């Protein structure tokens, strides 16, 4: 599961939500995941290809920030489980062998 899957799930859930607070939270999360998918992930992958591991790590940090910000949008309600997956995968405790230099 990844950010694209999470974004798709957010869109699906957004179509069925009537509560204004929940709908606003989903819309904000959708925008945040667009940034992850269109900017953070491609920039990180490019940095990995070029061997710029610190810049790649910065991209995953940005993705984690967006996932955490999405989680915070749901203070008054429950966030989608997929957001927690992305948040966990981008946390500093997640094993990141891709960022180790050989």
Automatic annotation (TrEMBL):
Q: Which GO terms describe its molecular function?
A: enzyme inhibitor activity
Answer whether the UniProt record assigns the keyword Signal to this protein: yes
Keywords on this record? Disulfide bond, Signal
By sequence similarity, the record places it as follows:
Belongs to the PMEI family.
Its recorded name reads INVERTASE INHIBITOR
What organism is recorded for this protein? Salix purpurea
